[in-house]
Write a structure and sequence with these properties.
45% helix; single chain; alpha/beta; 9 strands; 13 helices; 9-stranded mixed β-sheet; Spore Coat Polysaccharide Biosynthesis Protein SpsA, Chain A
């Protein structure tokens, strides 16, 4: 049985997918690479098939009609045979030494007959043109070298949170929790990492800079201008986070605090992009989003709206919007996102 299944969603990825795949092939027979061609119309399918022919015991090429990033991940989870599962986007890559360290750790779990639901590691913002690479680390909040639970976790800083790039899940746990991401929807990586958290009981942190998260293409989904154009997609995911997990049922205090923290960040991103657009239509959408949250869960609304970040994003009038955007720009520099 493979230690790790790596799902590589690909859509028109011919120009960069090889670098991603080559970085993962170093895992050898311990790993299976599931290249999911999501209805590409360029050379993606041929590249995937070529790798599957060259490495038949490691690489599987899966072709499907276009369903979006979430459906590609769903397909990967369905076909995975590895004990653990990682999603790596086709324009990203992994660090070799960190990768080997992670595989060594996963192998030790197998040898010792230990089961871990979620493994967390660091990721690096590979921002195009930036000499200084921001690293999202967790050494200040997670214990190292031991299997731990949510009770052992310390509070996260503002702007520090667990993303898809950070996590490796136990494959069967993903299936047991019924994770299914929506089709034709952007920004579902937040759902992928958030929805399963209430099913995670055992965690392990490996303090290595494993995932290299590339930021810089103008057509990239996380580019600010693209996110503003697709703001309805961001709002959709924001609402799905609220609908799919009832925080009132989360009994563990530290897990509840973290999930509220994560939801706060996503909601602040939604709110500030709506401000950033500068249109009356999107200012109305911002008010509608807050109204939606209030109607869904009044206690959650109070936590999000009147927490520091919520307060900062809702200062009244044009001066308030200027302050909110200034805070957003500072957070961009501190956290490193686009």
């Amino acid at each position: 049985m493979k230690l790790l299944s790596v799902v590589i969603p690909c859509y028109n990825s011919q120009d960069y997918m090889k670098y991603c795949i080559e970085s993962l092939l170093i895992g050898g027979e311990h790993v299976e690479l599931l290249i999911v061609n999501d209805g590409s119309v360029d050379g993606t399918a041929a590249i995937a098939d070529d790798y599957a022919r060259k490495y038949p015991t490691i690489v599987k090429a899966i072709h499907q009609e276009n369903g979006g990033h979430g459906e590609a991940v769903n397909t990967g989870v369905k076909h995975a045979t590895g004990v653990h599962l990682k999603v790596v986007d086709s324009d990203d890559w992994v660090d070799t030494r960190a990768y080997l360290k992670i595989l060594e750790t996963l192998n030790s779990f197998m040898v010792d007959n230990k089961s871990v639901d979620m493994i967390i590691s660091n990721f690096v913002y590979e921002k195009n043109g930036e000499k200084y690479k921001k690293v999202m680390k967790y050494e200040n909040v997670l214990p190292e070298g031991i299997i731990f639970s949510w009770d052992d976790m310390k509070p996260f800083r503002k702007g520090q949170y667990i993303l898809m790039h950070s996590v490796i899940f136990r494959t069967q746990m993903l299936r047991d929790c019924g994770l299914k991401l929506p089709k034709h929807t952007f920004y579902v990586d937040n759902l992928f990492v958030y929805a399963p958290l209430e099913y995670v009981k055992k965690l392990y942190y490996i303090n290595v800079d494993f995932y290299r998260y590339f930021i810089g293409r103008e057509d990239q989904s996380v580019h600010e201008s693209v996110m503003i154009k697709r703001i309805d997609q961001q709002i959709k995911v924001n609402k799905l986070l609220i609908e799919q997990v009832d925080l009132n049922t989360i009994e563990n205090e530290k897990l509840h605090r973290y999930m509220l923290h994560h939801l706060e960040i996503v909601t602040v991103v939604s709110a500030v992009l709506l401000i950033r657009s500068g249109t009356a239509e999107n200012f109305n959408k911002r008010r509608e989003l807050w109204k939606y949250i209030k109607n869904e869960d009044a206690a959650l609304y109070r936590s999000l709206r009147y927490g520091f970040m919520g307060w900062l994003m809702n200062l009244p009038g044009r001066p308030g919007r200027i302050i909110s955007l200034g805070a957003y720009k500072i957070s961009q520099r501190l956290v490193g996102f686009n």
